[in-house]
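User: Hello! My lab partner asked me to get a predicted holo structure for this protein. The small molecule is nicotinamide-adenine-dinucleotide, SMILES included with the sequence. Please write out the structure tokens.
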Amino acid sequence: MAGKTKLKVGIIGTGGIAHNHAGGYLNLPNECEIVALCDIVEGKAEAFAKEFKLEGVRFYNDCHEMMKKEKLDCVSVTTWNAAHKECTIAALEGGANVIVEKPMAMNAKEAEEMLAAAKKAGKILQVGFVRRFGADADTVNQFQKDNMLGDVYYAKAVYIRRDGCPGGWFKDKNFSGGGPVIDLGVHVIDLCRYLAGNPKPVSVYASTYNNLGPNRAGGGESAWSVADKQEHPYNVEDFACALIKFENGLTINMETSFNLNVKNDYIDLLLCGTKAGVQLSGDMEIYTTMAGRHVNIRPTGRTGFDFTGSFLAEMAGFIKTVRGEEKCRATGEDGLMLMKIIDAIYESSKTGKSVDLK
Ligand SMILES: NC(=O)c1ccc[n+]([C@@H]2O[C@H](COP(=O)([O-])OP(=O)(O)OC[C@H]3O[C@@H](n4cnc5c(N)ncnc54)[C@H](O)[C@@H]3O)[C@@H](O)[C@H]2O)c1
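Assistant: Hello! Below are the structure tokens for the protein in complex with nicotinamide-adenine-dinucleotide.
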């Protein structure tokens, strides 16, 4: 490692998920160092530095000022969704490579502007699709290198919470851009699209509802609801389902909720190919036929999604990409594709018609 210059890192938005980004950078002490922190809330960045025992860090309340005063190689944008565009473009124009949390933006138009800024600056723009770095995704990709699933033509991308609105700004459309579709659905749609080879979406037919959430916010039984102080209105959808079709013939069946009258929370991730199917949620299982018999195969070793470990892998991947040692695994183009799908889900629900994507 001798001779390698440490990359200078800044974080914009020192809230919840910034902890995982900081953890990822601090896990690579020979590769990078956090030198600047920015949050619009007075004292929040300072408290964050104290928590991580960061020394010599400079603090800002305005990302534009931070980018003017600092020379940063890497910036994490970990603000609420409504600030992703402004902070990402400021960081790119200030000369940094950026990893912006999912969803990339509030909508596809914003994502296009961010992508254009990255191209103009000649910098990397990675999107925080952490599920692409899970051991489950790695395992399926390994199998697909040997074409074990064949052509994947159907996927289930289901992320259901019975009473699990994160509260606060997440339920306020002006800050989040939407509910479970943009917060949870984005993860599982992207994972299925990624594992099926990143095909281009061609049409979306969807329904969204908000029957339960607005009445239950702050009054539900779950820890999520109890923690909600009602400082924001609940004006996003609480449930959505969608059929998303892709140009290679893949159909993704998506369901997601913050609130739904079901027995319990669950995630259901299934990819079905011409040679085999794979269930990713729970213990990974592969379904195929051998010698004329149906068989269910359980791969050994690590095959599950582990939140902390996947973030470490994601941040390590970002640093490697910035150093030119690895191809970006979750590009701005991927982020834009997902924003187009999300916009189409909301539009289809409004019009009651299928939406074609260009
Ligand atoms: N990848 C994942 O699994 C995952 C998990 C949780 C959250 N997220 C995403 O991370 C982002 C942040 O979520 P969170 O739960 O950490 O929210 P949070 O509210 O805990 O933190 C957001 C922080 O951003 C700050 N902020 C807002 N606008 C700012 C601006 N213009 N400049 C500087 N600071 C600003 C806020 O003051 C706050 O401290 C969201 O986009 C969310 O969707 C991703």
